[in-house]
Amino acid sequence: MPESTTNLDLSQKSARVELMSGVAEEPGSAKPDPMLTVDNITRHFGGITAVDVTHLEVQRGIITALIGPNGAGKTTFFNLITGFDKPSPGASWTFDGQGISKTSASRVARAGMVRTFQLTKALNRMTVLDNMMLGAPGQRGERLLSSWLQPLWSRQEKDIEDKALSLLERFKLLEKKDDFAGSLSGGQRKLLEMARALMTDPKMIMLDEPMAGVNPALTQSLLGHVESLRDEGMTVLFVEHDMHVVRHISDWVVVMAEGKVVAEGTAKNVMAQQAVVDAYLGAHHDTDLGDDALLEDENFAAIEAEAQQESEGRS
Ligand SMILES: Nc1ncnc2c1ncn2[C@@H]1O[C@H](COP(=O)(O)OP(=O)(O)OP(=O)(O)O)[C@@H](O)[C@H]1O
């Protein structure tokens, strides 16, 4: 690992700022020590180009947010790099120095890159503890989830259960262990999704809208959990629409629009960039996303609704 990361204690904000201070705030910029490097990844659905990323590096040991208006390609990008979807020929990407572009989702997970999954109907009907231990397969994602846990299953069941219980304790879900997952509140579900992803001891965790549907009381606690994963050395990449959250916990922000990376930088700088304003608002606006007023939920919802209307108008 290059000295740039190892010499710094990335649980300290000043160290993270120092680490990223030399990084160009432009799409595809080189990082001091990338955990993930992606080249020429494209995905078309019929006539739509959902993803068209020429080059992207995700820095190790920090929290990177992936933002962009609805339909920008964020979820498709997550699916592609975790092996849940296949890109057009010519794509390549490496994780922790290892080429993983021709690798199945379960192998990607075993290499140390996991993504969270929303609780599906079948998972809702399982208890919280069973979700952690994972058995019952239904949909593709669930089968993959169980195959991620294969390496663990070679261990004694007791060890696996101990690990599940200690994660549930950490995420304050221990009292709920015998309840059906479907009975959990929105925030508790998000905690369970996160806890479950940690069963495989990942190096990098990818969170898909970790704060969606979470009440304000639990938001703070969830944010704290995400930050503590980073403070323990994990690399975090998350998709999020809530700009308060993005500003609050991101060390770096990548902005996608119409499948491409259109901006990168710190939250503050990125939101002031014209390309980002254009992506969210359309080029005819001259509003600054760095303006805090724009980060009020109400205003952001209006911006998103407008972007949605524009994209529907185009399609
Ligand atoms: N399975 C699919 N079949 C057809 N089109 C798809 C499929 N999945 C995604 N798309 C299209 O690809 C584009 C990117 O979608 P994607 O869901 O990746 O965007 P997103 O940035 O995650 O949006 P959101 O923030 O709304 O979740 C959109 O135009 C979407 O309609």
TrEMBL record:
<keyword id="KW-0067">ATP-binding</keyword>
<dbReference type="GO" id="GO:0005886">
    <property type="term" value="C:plasma membrane"/>
</dbReference>
<dbReference type="InterPro" id="IPR051120">
    <property type="entry name" value="ABC_AA/LPS_Transport"/>
</dbReference>
<keyword id="KW-0813">Transport</keyword>
<dbReference type="Pfam" id="PF00005">
    <property type="entry name" value="ABC_tran"/>
</dbReference>
<feature type="domain" description="ABC transporter">
    <location>
        <begin position="36"/>
        <end position="283"/>
    </location>
</feature>
<dbReference type="InterPro" id="IPR003593">
    <property type="entry name" value="AAA+_ATPase"/>
</dbReference>
<dbReference type="GO" id="GO:0016887">
    <property type="term" value="F:ATP hydrolysis activity"/>
</dbReference>
<dbReference type="GO" id="GO:0005524">
    <property type="term" value="F:ATP binding"/>
</dbReference>
<dbReference type="InterPro" id="IPR017871">
    <property type="entry name" value="ABC_transporter-like_CS"/>
</dbReference>
<protein>
    <submittedName>
        <fullName>ABC transporter ATP-binding protein</fullName>
    </submittedName>
</protein>
<keyword id="KW-0547">Nucleotide-binding</keyword>
<dbReference type="InterPro" id="IPR027417">
    <property type="entry name" value="P-loop_NTPase"/>
</dbReference>
<dbReference type="InterPro" id="IPR003439">
    <property type="entry name" value="ABC_transporter-like_ATP-bd"/>
</dbReference>
